[in-house]
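During the no-cost extension, the postdoctoral fellow (Dr. R.K.) reprocessed legacy sequence entries with the updated structure-token encoder. One reprocessed record is reproduced below for audit purposes.
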Amino acid sequence: MKRDLDLIRKMVLTIEESESGWATALAVEGYTPSQLGYHAYLLLDAGLAKGADISSHGSKSPTALITSLTWAGHEFADAARDDTRWRKTRAIVIEKGGAITFELLRQLLTILMKGAFHLP
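Re-encoded structure tokens follow.
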């Protein structure tokens, strides 16, 4: 399964919107439980969320149960929340070849965010 950065963004923003901060019943419209489980696993691996790896040998793919966002997860949410900034970032990625590392994505979002505040 390929990493879907749009799904990662949607999941982080959905978790952040939870009134309690807990994210144990995470659902994102248009995505299968398998896709959500795998991307939850990736969120844990990237340090954006806390939770538990619930993969087993019988699992179709690695999967995780997210409990909450980490500080880094909230930072990513702040950088990725603005739809215009997200679309501009995705357009740059597509223009430059369509693939990007997550760290570079965060840096690009941060650069565009700084620009919105007229910071060097």
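Residues 93 and 99 are 6 Å apart (CA to CA). The mean pLDDT is 90. The remaining legacy entries will be reprocessed before the final report is submitted.
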